[in-house]
Amino acid sequence: MPRMTGEGRRRADAERNIEAILDAALDCISDQPDVNMTAIAKAAGVSRVTLYAHFPSRHDLVAHVLDRAVTTAAEVLDTETLDDHDPAEALTRLIRSGWQILAGHRNLMTAAHDTLPPAQVRSFHNTVLRRVEKLITRGRRQGTFRTDLPQTWLVTIFYSLLHAAAEEVTAGRLRQRDAADVLATTILSALTPPTR
Amino acid sequence: MPRMTGEGRRRADAERNIEAILDAALDCISDQPDVNMTAIAKAAGVSRVTLYAHFPSRHDLVAHVLDRAVTTAAEVLDTETLDDHDPAEALTRLIRSGWQILAGHRNLMTAAHDTLPPAQVRSFHNTVLRRVEKLITRGRRQGTFRTDLPQTWLVTIFYSLLHAAAEEVTAGRLRQRDAADVLATTILSALTPPTR
Helix, strand or coil for residue A142? Predict the structure, then answer.
């Protein structure tokens, strides 16, 4: 391996700092959504000057943290919805993983809602939603999901029940550990073609 | 019938005026949620002085209009959920009637949301919701509705899908005339016990 030039070493340092900042920011925000930049710099082991050199504003940092979380979520969800899974099985896996991801990122969502424009925050939901749409299309084609109701409505069922379950957990009427199972059972019942 | 005394006649006049004002107010608000008191007095055929003698504020008038609409809705819904109907049939009737009532009172809900405290506006939803709860309890007891998911969650399914359908209609993704059927089909599928 060739010795690094000064320029190369500076770039490697910068990349390592950016990774450390994004990791620390996700940890800090997950503990406390309104955590400030000073606390994040400290947790990342960098100076405030270094932090602001890479992320000129809190808005900018939260946007990057969200972006990275969305990318990771997309990778996880893609393995769950692979075309060789039965659509009902894939939907159950998608619900379980999607639920865990959303639950794990609840404080990040709060921070994002407080900091970023709504369209940017929706990128997270859209990551799940696009895969749901694709999966429902495939399930209808294969006869696993019903075709007597519109496709858009089946997607709406998924999304509104997911949202309702989150609210029920927050209100203390549904246990977090039961939620994914309750959701999967309900959504599959609603999407399965009527018998007879 | 005895001749009315002056006092009796005044009371009869007042009652007639109140009915006319409430009828006119519902009509006016249904056309235009932010209609003003002058337009309502004119539509009711009474003076502004008479209007304000009975309803000292717009807030007061909207509250009474909402209250009367809720009472009427409760009467309609009670005939649909009678104990001698099969629970699935009663739920379908409740959804169709409830949907028509909510659709017919959409502008009233807007006016109420703009004028009254949220708890007062919820009285409308609670009128539907209490009957849904009772019906789901009966359906679970009779084996028509599933018992493998919590009762509170079945009520949440009903409520959140109703809400979602209203949003889909507003967004132009679901036709108003299809909504009640789509809702009834979806909710019954979600509430029916799993076979096997």
Answer: coil
The verdict on a CB contact (< 8 Å) between B153 and A192 is no
Tell me: the pLDDT tens digits for A132-143?
A: 999 999 999 999
Give the model's confidence band at A196: pLDDT under 50 very low, under 70 low, under 90 confident, else very high.
Answer: very low
Q: What is the pLDDT of residue A127?
A: 80
How large is the average pLDDT for residues A148-177?
A: 92
Contact (Cβ atoms closer than 8 angstroms) between residue A143 and residue A193: yes
| Average pLDDT over every residue of B85-95 | 91
Contact A174 B152 (CB under 8 A): yes
**DSSP string for residues in A1-25:** -PPPPHHHHHHHHHHHHHHHHHHHH
Q: Which residues in A lie closer than 8 A to residue B164 (C-beta atoms)?
A: 156-157, 159-160
In contact, B22 and B64? CB cutoff 8 Å: yes
* Residues B143 and B173 placed together within one structural domain of the fold: yes
Residue of B nearest to A186 (CA): B190
Query: Would you say A80 and A101 are in contact if contact means Cβ atoms under 8 Å apart?
Result: no
Q: Nearest by CB to B153, from A146, A160, A174: name it.
A: A174
The verdict on a CB contact (< 8 Å) between A192 and B189 is yes
pLDDT of res. A121: 80
For residue A194, what pLDDT band results from cuts at 50, 70 and 90? confident
Q: Which of B152, B157, B168 comes nearest A153 by C-beta? A: B168
Domain span at residue A142?
62-191
Q: Which value, in Å, is the radius of gyration of the alpha carbons in chain B? A: 20
List all residues 6 or more positions away from B98 whose beta carbon is below 8 Å from its beta carbon: B73, B77, B128, B162
B83 burial level (CB within 10 Å; 0-12, 13-18, 19+): exposed
CATH of the domain at B121: 1.10.357.10
Residues A14-18: contacts with CB within 8 Å, 24+ apart? A14/A54, A17/A44, A17/A46, A17/A50, A17/A54, A18/A54
Domain count, chain B: 2
A152/B174 CB distance under 8 A: yes
Contact B182 A156 (CB under 8 A): no
Domain co-membership, A100 together with A160:
yes
